Amino acid sequence: MSAAEWVPESPTLAELRSAVQDCRGCELYRDATQGVMGEGPTPAPLMLLGEQPGDREDREGEPFVGPAGGILHEALADAGIDPEATYTTNVVKHFRHRLSGKRRIHQSPTSKQVGACAPWLAAELDLVRPTGVVLLGGTAGKALYGSSFRVGEARGHLLEWPDAIATASLDPWVLATTHPSAVLRAEDQRQETYDGLVADLKVAAKALTR
Ligand code: URA
Ligand code: SF4
């Protein structure tokens, strides 16, 4: 399984957004409304990397426009990062879910689906050429560092870009943090979880000013 044959050569972002609609690199296109390419300026100093589009993103065709996106944009602003200056995307471009009656319930993508979708991310990295990449949650972390990656151990300090993932003359630092949806799920620890996200993003903000 690989998206490689659907990724155009030296694409613009508009070309990527259009080409991802034809991707058959894994089975996830079947049950999704559309592919959701990243969004933001190219180049951009910071890339924010989530898991996959959610229900709202799947309908609207843009990343982080739902509830988790609301938390993310608030946390970025609180950390002193202009959300508009960042490029936001996901390791998987189609929404994986199951049905519960009429409700679409999020399901994390498998490592095979993440691997299949990686050529799209590689094309985005070539366009965005970020100084730093923020990994939002475990799926993004595993996509870069493998299945043993744990956000709890890795978060809050700068990491080296993984050797396993080649990026042409690009060597961004990486910062891992919790996924903003964890704040929504945290109930009685909501403030604590949010503060942790902002504290990690401040590490990225500081690294960007170096
Ligand atoms: N969660 C993600 O990981 N990405 C989105 O775009 C929305 C929610
Ligand atoms: Fe292609 Fe990725 Fe969608 Fe799978 S999830 S069909 S690899 S764009």
From TrEMBL:
Keywords: 4Fe-4S, DNA damage, DNA repair, Hydrolase, Iron, Iron-sulfur, Metal-binding. CDD domains: UDG-F4_TTUDGA_SPO1dp_like. SMART domains: UDG (SM00986), UreE_C (SM00987). InterPro entries: UDG_Type-4/5 (IPR051536), Ura-DNA_glyco_family4 (IPR005273), Uracil-DNA_glycosylase-like (IPR005122), Uracil-DNA_glycosylase-like_sf (IPR036895). The keyword Metal-binding applies. The keyword Hydrolase applies. GO terms for molecular function: 4 iron, 4 sulfur cluster binding; deaminated base DNA N-glycosylase activity; metal ion binding. One of its GO terms (biological process) is DNA repair. Pfam families: UDG (PF03167). Residues 37-202 form the Uracil-DNA glycosylase-like domain. NCBIfam families: UDG_fam_dom (TIGR03914). Belongs to the uracil-DNA glycosylase (UDG) superfamily. Type 4 (UDGa) family. This is Type-4 uracil-DNA glycosylase.
